[in-house]
Specification:
- This protein is an alpha+beta fold.
- The protein folds into 2 domains: 84 residues, no CATH class; 328 residues, Transposase Inhibitor Protein From Tn5, Chain A, domain 1, CATH 3.90.350.
- The protein is built from 14 helices and 14 strands.
- The strands form 3 sheets. Strands 3, 4, 5, 6, 7, 8, 11, 12, 13 and 14 form a 10-stranded mixed β-sheet that branches. A two-stranded antiparallel ribbon has the order 1-2. The protein has a two-stranded antiparallel ribbon with strand order 9-10.
- Helix 11 packs across helix 12.
- The chain is globular.
Length: 413
Amino acid sequence: MAIVHSAGNQDITTYSPVTSAEVVGDIQQRIGRYFTRAEPRRRFMAYLTGLLSEVKRKNGCSLAEYAQDITPDGMQRLLTTAKWDAGAIRDELHNYVKEQFGDPRSLLVVGQAAFAKRGCHSAGVKKQFNEDSQRVENCQIGMFLGYVTLRGTILIDRELYVPEEWRHDDERRARAGIPEVAFASRARLAARMLTRAVDSELPMAWVTTSELGGSGPALHEWLKAQHIPHIVEIRPSTAVPYKRGSRLVRGPAHDVLGPVSNSRWHRIWPRGPLWSRVLLRSDTSGLTADWLLARAARPGDPEQQYLASGPVTTPLAELACAAQASGGINKALVRAKDRVGLDHYEARRYEAWYRHVTLALFADTLLQAHICPRRDGWLGPAVIQKPQGMGERGVREICLHRRTRQAAISLAR
C-alpha cells in the first residue's frame, strides 16, 4: 500500500509490501496450472513474494535469503533450467490487467529501457546508447509495452533486442541460449507485443510510441495495415509521404513542416508546449487520415515530430494528448526498477532475462492494483493535464479517448 508522509514542504510516498494471504492465494490459483511440479511452483511464488517485499537488492542471493533458503541454487534454477513457460505467465498477466485496469479509453505505449552490464556474455549486450545515462555504454536494450490508464501506466509485455552481431558469434550465442527468432528489428519486436495485446482483447483506443532508434516509419506502416489508430515518434530527417496536388511524393519531415504558419501552432495546455499538424493524405473512403504531428516550444521550431493515423475527424487536442501520454512508460520503467528490481537480475541467458522480467512486471502490476484500487465512479488522477477551456467530460474523452475507437481495433482483428 502507499503511505504518504511529510518531509519539510514535500510529501514523500513510500510503499509497504503486498504480502496478504488474499493476493498470494489469488496468484497461486492463476498460475498453478502452468506448473506440472510442486517445487518450481513454490519457487515461483517465493520469487514473486520476494520481488513484492522490501528487500533492497532483488537478485537470486537476496531473494533466496528472504525465502530462508540455505543457498540461491533454487532461485537460479527457476530462471534457468526449471520447466515453465514465461509466455504463458505473460498471457495471464494480460488477463489480470484486463480484469483490474481494462478501459476502452486507455492507450498502449511502446518504449525501451537500457540495462547496464559488465562483460560481453549477457544475452544481447553491446556498447550502445543508454537513454537513462545519456551515453554509449555496455548494456542490454529491452522493449516494453505499457497500458496507460487513469490509474497509472501498467507494464504488460517485454522483448529483448538482440543486435545482429550476435547472430554470427556461435560460441557466445550458444552460451547465452539465443534462438534464431530473437533476431528482429525494434519495429518487429514492437509488432509482436502489440499483436499479443490485441489478441488478448485488451481494450484500448490508441497506440503511441517514443522514438525507437529510427524504427518509427516501419511501425507506422505496420499499424496502418492493422487499421489501429496511432501516433509514432520519428526523427526530423525521416522521409514521409504526402500529397502534392494529385501526386504522392516523399520529403523529410522537417521540410514538410517548414511552410506551417505561426497561426497554426496551438497551445493545448496553459504554459504547455505548442502543437501543430499537417495533413499528409487521407484514404479513398475519407474515413481515416495520416498527419505529421509536431510539438514545439515556440512556433516553427519543432522539438518532436510524429506520424499519426486515425479517424479523419480526430481533433488536434486528442492527438496531442495521446502523444504526450507516451512519456508515461518511462516513469513506469523507473518505478519498476526501483520497487520490484526490474534490472536486478544477474542471469546471462536469453530465457532467464524473460523469466525475471516477466515476474517483475507481474509484481509491479500487483502493487499498482493494490495501491490504486478500482472503485466505482472513481476517476483517479488525470494522466494528462487538463486542456485549456475544457470541461471534466472533455478531459475524460480526450485524455483517454472515446469509446468509438474500440471499433477500429475490432475491425483490424
